[in-house]
Automatic annotation (TrEMBL):
Family: Belongs to the class-III pyridoxal-phosphate-dependent aminotransferase family.
InterPro entries in alphabetical order: Aminotrans_3, Aminotrans_3_PPA_site, Dat, Ectoine_EctB, PyrdxlP-dep_Trfase, PyrdxlP-dep_Trfase_major, PyrdxlP-dep_Trfase_small
Classification via Gene3D superfamilies: Aspartate Aminotransferase, domain 1, Type I PLP-dependent aspartate aminotransferase-like (Major domain)
Gene it is expressed from: ectB
Pfam families: Aminotran_3
EC class of the enzyme, as a word: transferase
PROSITE patterns, per database record: AA_TRANSFER_CLASS_3
Pathways per UniProt: Amine and polyamine biosynthesis; ectoine biosynthesis; L-ectoine from L-aspartate 4-semialdehyde: step 1/3
EC number per UniProt: 2.6.1.76
Keyword Transferase: yes
Cofactor requirements of the protein: pyridoxal 5'-phosphate
SUPFAM superfamilies referenced in this protein's UniProt entry, alphabetically: PLP-dependent transferases (SSF53383)
Protein name: Diaminobutyrate--2-oxoglutarate transaminase
Amino acid sequence: MSSVAALEVFDRRESEVRGYIRAFPTVFDRATGSTLVDAEGREYLDFFAGAGVLNYGHNNPAFTRALIAYLERDGIIHGLDMATSAKQAFIEAFERIVLQPRGLDHKLQFTGPTGANAVEAALKVARQATGRSTVVAFTNAFHGLSLGSLAATGNSHYRTAAGVGLDDVARLPYDGYLGADVDTLDLLEKMLDDPGSGLDLPAAVIVEAVQGEGGINVARASWLQRLRELTAARGILLILDEIQAGVGRTGAFFAFEESGIVPDIVTVSKSISGSGLPMSLVLLRPEVDVWKPGAHTGTFRGNNLAFVSARVALETYWADSAFTDAIAAKSALLREELERIAADHPEQGFVVRGRGLMYGLACDGDRTLAGRISKAAFGRGLVIETSGAFDEVLKFLPALTIEEDELRRGLAIVRESLDAVLAG
Ligand code: PLP
């Protein structure tokens, strides 16, 4: 069956809301590491990693083995938020491998399994803990599409779908929004201290250390440090949304680590389970953990299978520095090649942005270019997506476990695709 014919049932029966299927129109069937295989046996190199869910690659054998063993011994699959041995082992590993070495005393809240679920919980608890309603979010932020998280998301494409008011969020410019020479926090500071500014004292500020969906915008460490100081001095809670930039994506476990700040609340999802199974958590400083028992409940909180692979991921990759060293080497390779591509096309004015294995090639000169490169790359066997308010940024999000030769091969496809698109 041709791939067009195989997609017929999706066109006929699946809602118009479907998205990625349109950019990558084939029926995927199997995957290992950084290779996807479609139903016709065609291979694709993956520079998308499930939008940041598959930081350790597809079907990582260490996780698959542990999941099969757990299933075969009839381990608990669903347990609401009851204690299970899988959850216990995950919490202990997270405490030992992630929290303690970083001096973090945060409590863990397990929310529903999507990133938006974690953001909703974070916003709700921040409002409860402070008794205030306003939350500051930034330009080009992406925090999810449920109503509370959508109010904090910037992109009008998503906001107009809400159908109701998206309230209680004030928007301020992210780092770099007004150019590298402007410190956008001057505006926040002035507004916070000016009773005439119209900005009520917020409950919280929510921020991504590196904006993923918003176009791979990187906040400077000094900007995050100042944000931490401004918020701490006024009793405003600081929420770091690490859903996409966390779990090693920018080179350290948390993207905020480089700045040395300690957030009050951290949202974690996407790659935390390692295997791609849905799982989310919210980290809360003990004094922010003001929840009454069961006050934010739900049926699917704590995915026990996900706990199993999440624990194995922490033990396999985060017990020493070998993994972060390997990410740093691949990050240098990625940045160098992207800068070469930019230098080879000065007429396009490409800008290279990012950290770790989260990079963007911003094609602001022609906002259709990134989408056309992505399409041409797919035809050549590479899955790569775009981001930014105009989809003008080609977004590089390979698995952190990608082999260097795979990274080089994918970059060669990008170069070829760019040349083909420019040749018209
Ligand atoms: N926050 C950030 C930073 C994200 O990148 C995303 C998704 O891309 C979300 C929240 C929402 O996560 P989900 O799509 O799982 O609801």
